[in-house]
Amino acid sequence: MEFLDEELQRYAEDHTSAESELLHKVNRQTHLQVLKPRMLSGHLQGRLLAMFSQMIRPKQILEVGTYTGYSALCLAEGLQPGGTLHTIDKNEELEDRVLGYFKEAGLEDSIKLHIGNALKIIPSLDTAFDLVFLDADKINYANYYDLVFDKVAPGGYIIADNVLWSGKVLEKYRKKLDEDTAAVIAFNKKIHDDTRVENILLPVRDGLLVARKL
Question: What does the alpha-carbon distance between residue 93 and residue 124 come to, in Å, rounded to a whole number?
Fold first, then answer.
């Protein structure tokens, strides 16, 4: 996942607006108390997601993959008054922690946490989304994209995380083509070939693919 020289990465973070106290707390507690803390968006990517949301000013946001709520809190920074962020995760063990962070942020009425299978939950959401963030299991990225596409308003955005997959999208950085890597490669091609969107792949952290629905 570490593509930049460590000093350059630190320089970029040092010249990026700081995390809020709550985001710093979520970041630190996740690394100290939760398994697989690399799944957290973190400072630099979090500020980028917040910036995207503030530019788009979405009324409705969908996030697939909540983890400990860091990215949801970042995305919520750009919500219009009265807007809603729906976030889906299958890990019920993190539910109380995540809801606690949302309450601490004063967003318990703006962020709705859904615990369960996103493939079943997404079709049940009768909402037109302005912004979608995919950050869940890579095997189903293409399925999530297909399920959300018609729910995205024209001019709306779909952002997918981990699209460089620690560099394994390139053959020289992988030992074998495992199922997850194959899924990420296929997903990236699917979006790039989709004439219904325009897209850009940003080499930020583990890669962000941003697609705007035409």
Answer: 23
Strand blocks (E) in the chain:
60-64, 84-89, 111-115, 129-134, 152-161, 197-202, 208-213
Look up the CATH number of domain 6-213: 3.40.50.150
CB neighbours (10 Å) of residue 80? 12
Neighbours of 57 (CB within 10 A): 12
pLDDT digits (tens, 9 = 90+) for 47-84: 999 999 999 999 999 999 999 999 999 999 999 999 99
Q: Are 72 and 48 in contact (CB under 8 A)?
A: no
In degrees, rounded to 5, the angle at the alpha carbon of residue 45 between the alpha carbons of residues 211 and 146 is 30
Global pTM reads: 0.96
In whole angstroms, what is the distance from residue 19 CA to residue 25 CA?
A: 9
The dihedral region occupied by 2, where left means phi > 0, alpha psi between -120 and 50, and beta the remainder, is beta
